[in-house]
Amino acid sequence: MPHSKPRVIYWFRTDLRLHDSPALQAALDLDPEVFYPIWTWDPHYVYRARVGANRWQFLTDCQRDLSSSLTKLNPKQKLHLIREAPQTVLPKLFKLWSITHLVFEKDTDAYARDRDRGVMKLAEDAGVEVIVKMGRTLYDPNELVKHNGGRPTMSMAQTQKAAAALGDPAKPIPPPTSLPDPGDTDLSSIDHQRPDPTPDLNAAHRDLSHKESQYTSIMGPNKDFSIPTLEEMGISGATTPHRGGETIALRTLDTIISNSDYTGLFEKPKTAPTAFSPQSTTLLSPHHHFGSLSIRLFYWRVQEIYQKRKQAQKPNSSIPESLHGQLLFRDMYFGAQAAVGAPFAQEVGNPICKFVDWHLRSKLNEHNLLAGDYIVDNEKAESYFRRWKFGVTGFPWIDALMRQLRLEGWIHHLGRHAVACFLTRGGCYVHWERGAEVFEEWLIDHEVACNSGNWMWLSCTAFFSQFFRVYSPVAFPKKSDPAGEFVRHFVPELKNFDKKYIYEPWKAPIVDQRKWGCLVKGRGV
DNA sequence: TGTTAGGTTGCGTGC
DNA sequence: GGCACGCAACCTAAC
């Protein structure tokens, strides 16, 4: 039976918000007869991407918050979380729900691009119209590249120039004030396809005493499209204090914006990487990753502050150190990624990445893409790598950062510089791809474009080449934390050490080491 | 085709 | 404590 009004699936992915969503707006502008906000619980991310407990928690925080916001707009609505791969379940939904339109925000990562290309073909086959809108960055990365002569955006100067040609970023659009009903949602007639759980890159995070049950039923254990719990994922050990969701994101943004001096004078290089509780930067990056905060809303609210301060003749910081600069850096990396494509996250086949004969090179698959494993060419390098990962190098500054990363899923940008420099050109000569994989696993704000870009930057393989600028694990943290409070917090075995030795405890006399309760250098070593 | 200046965020020294 | 300077295996846009 032909339908006069559109029947729309809105496919949420990394755009977990209602405010300033061009794609959501486009879906609602269709004036749908029925509207299905869905999330597909994709086995690719569950098993084949590296995602630790803290990021799973952040994601499900965002999903729960979004779902409750949808319900507030229409009590019949929620985020319909469907536990099957999008590639297999979407065609079944198109048919079952007589869908006319599929709408989603563009995702620029390699897997997502392939997935979306496939899904668009399936939609075409089913006679479903697809609407895709860019909403993740200040500028469409492809447009930035076009205005950079078709080349990857490799510096802030290039990015600023291309951005200037494109004009101001779009103004944010308000959230919807109402939502149409969903139609019939029962999926029990669907032939549920459960994924193959092997190989499971996240096996280390699964608690073997719990059996995972995330894919047992397509609508969840209570057949209500519930968001999977960490228990259902078989994952335990989320330890981060940083929580997700649009509500928290908007509240955090308000707090930042309400501090005119902080917002107007923000200069990244002057923020302390040793500050914790509270941190010295905004901690909004995970919200940008999951889309619980619009990048354009942040940009324009900061712009308002700049304007007001200018009128009051107060100083403002400027790009690249300013808050606007931080947002533009993100666009620079997205632009570079867009021009390079899938090899952006690796060295081989990546035209912007310089070859260095690092230890622990990646194994590649038949397409010359990372195979998920690496070659141990050198036992010492492997040992350095493992000690780096788990925060037992013996350099307190490095160990404190890596422990904070594992525990909280976030470390300051300059802390990331310090540990990345240390693992690669600064000390261990381990391949930057190893470090990037650890960040992928542990960061709650992991973003392929920014992560790969920053690792190439710090390893001097792209974007940056002044190899002689090395972060000292002793001198660098001293600048902002001479007493070593950060180290004392995250490496508590050193908490009694005198500040004279806090960054190089091996220099403390053995008698003092005994007195302070931690023997760094035993006799005979 | 050559030269030059500049690049978000270094360190150690000396004043 | 703050600043200037040398270090010196770079890269590349702009002229």
Topology:
Elements: E1 7-11, H1 22-29, E2 34-40, H2 43-48, H3 53-73, E3 80-82, H4 86-96, E4 101-105, H5 110-125, E5 129-133, H6 141-146, H7 156-166, H8 230-233, H9 246-258, H10 260-265, H11 285-290, H12 295-311, H13 323-340, E6 362-364, E7 370-374, H14 379-389, H15 396-408, H16 413-423, H17 432-442, H18 448-458, H19 475-480, H20 485-490, H21 510-515
Parallel strand pairs: 1-2, 1-4, 2-3, 4-5
Antiparallel strand pairs: 6-7
The protein binds a DNA duplex (15 and 15 nucleotides) through residues 154-158, 267-271, 273, 319-322, 325-326, 329, 413-414, 417, 460, 464-472, 475-476.
Largest sheet: 5 strands, parallel
- Tell me the number of helical segments per DSSP (H or I, 4 or more residues long): 21
* Helix/strand order: EHEHHEHEHEHHHHHHHHEEHHHHHHHH
> Quick check: average pLDDT?
95
The termini sit apart by 82 Å
Per DSSP E runs of 2 or more residues, the count of β-strands stands at 7
Going by CATH, the architecture of the largest domain would be: Orthogonal Bundle
Strand order of the largest sheet: 3-2-1-4-5
Give start-end ranges of low-pLDDT stretches.
none
Q: What is the domain total for the residues?
A: 3
Backbone shape = globular
Overall CATH class of the largest domain: Mainly Alpha
Report the C-alpha radius of gyration, rounded. 24 Å
Determine the CATH superfamily of the largest domain.
DNA Cyclobutane Dipyrimidine Photolyase, subunit A, domain 3
CATH-defined topology of the largest domain: DNA Cyclobutane Dipyrimidine Photolyase, subunit A, domain 3
Residues in β-strands, percent: 5-15%
How helical, in percent, are the residues? 40-55%
By secondary-structure content and strand pairing, the structural class works out as: alpha/beta
